[in-house]
């Protein structure tokens, strides 16, 4: 099952990547005249630069994970056998479903990256009523699932780097932009809704003095 798990993980990874970035960009272009990609890296060493670098590394390692499982390099053994592998498959599919649903709910506001000069409508319904960053939550869950399905050093490292990239992107890039763009509306939203997990990571507003 080891090599087969690698092939399943590889198929899921490539399908997810194609749907989340390729298909979504085509749909966005047809509906809005724009791909939604904002890929300027920013100044070297800036939070935006680090976020994009970490995401690029995570994507490459995410591909390397199932490939190294297939060829037998750096395989890891996780207690639980097929039960854990099954849980991994469920998590990978659940994370992918959450990601794709959240992208669809963003509509014209969907972006990859941030343009500080751009103002998009804030989305707060659907999955965004439960967590503020369901796209990233879905990515993280899917990455953990793929690791459990086909555990290797590369897939473990991919998950760790992805989690770091998400933290940098959300906390140091996107949240400052959203506070600047939407002001009190975003602050109120952040006080009600968790960052990645429901009710966790809410930013409580300071009472007026």
Q: How would you describe this protein?
A:
This protein has 209 residues and is mainly alpha-helical. The protein has one domain: I/LWEQ domain. The protein has six helices and no strands.
Outline the biggest β-sheet: none
What name does the CATH topology carry? I/LWEQ domain
Overall outline = globular
Count up the helices.
6
Beginning-to-end CA distance, first to last residue: 62 Å
Question: Stretches where pLDDT falls below 50 for ≥5 residues?
Answer: none
Radius of gyration: 18 Å
For the residues shown, what is the average pLDDT? 93
What is the strand tally?
A: 0
Tell me the structural class. Answer: mainly alpha
CATH class descriptor: Mainly Alpha
Order of helices and strands: HHHHHH
Q: Write down the domain tally.
A: 1
Known CATH architecture:
Up-down Bundle
Strand-residue fraction? under 5%
Helix content: 55-70%
Subcellular location: Endomembrane system
Membrane topology: Multi-pass membrane protein
EC number: 2.1.1.100, 2.1.1.334
Protein name: Isoprenylcysteine carboxylmethyltransferase family protein
Task: Summarize this structure briefly.
The protein is mainly α.
């Amino acid at each position: 099952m080891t090599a087969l798990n690698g092939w399943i993980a590889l198929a899921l990874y490539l399908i997810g990547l194609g749907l989340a970035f390729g298909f979504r960009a085509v749909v966005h272009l047809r509906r809005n005249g724009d791909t939604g990609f904002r890929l300027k890296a920013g100044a070297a060493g800036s939070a935006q630069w680090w976020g994009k670098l970490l995401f690029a590394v995570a994507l490459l390692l995410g591909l390397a994970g199932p490939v190294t499982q297939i060829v037998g390099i750096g395989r890891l053994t996780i207690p639980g056998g097929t039960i854990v592998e099954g849980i991994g498959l469920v998590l990978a599919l659940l994370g992918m479903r959450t990601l794709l649903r959240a992208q669809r709910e963003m509509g014209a506001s969907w972006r990859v990256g941030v343009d500080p000069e751009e103002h998009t409508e804030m989305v707060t319904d659907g999955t965004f009523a439960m967590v503020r960053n369901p796209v990233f939550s879905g990515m993280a869950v899917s990455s953990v699932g793929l690791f459990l399905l086909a555990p290797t050093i590369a897939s473990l490292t991919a998950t760790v780097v992805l989690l770091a990239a998400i933290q940098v992107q959300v906390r140091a890039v996107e949240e400052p932009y959203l506070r600047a763009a939407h002001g009190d509306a975003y602050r109120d939203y952040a006080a009600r809704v968790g960052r990645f997990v429901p009710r966790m990571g809410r930013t409580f507003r300071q009472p007026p003095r």
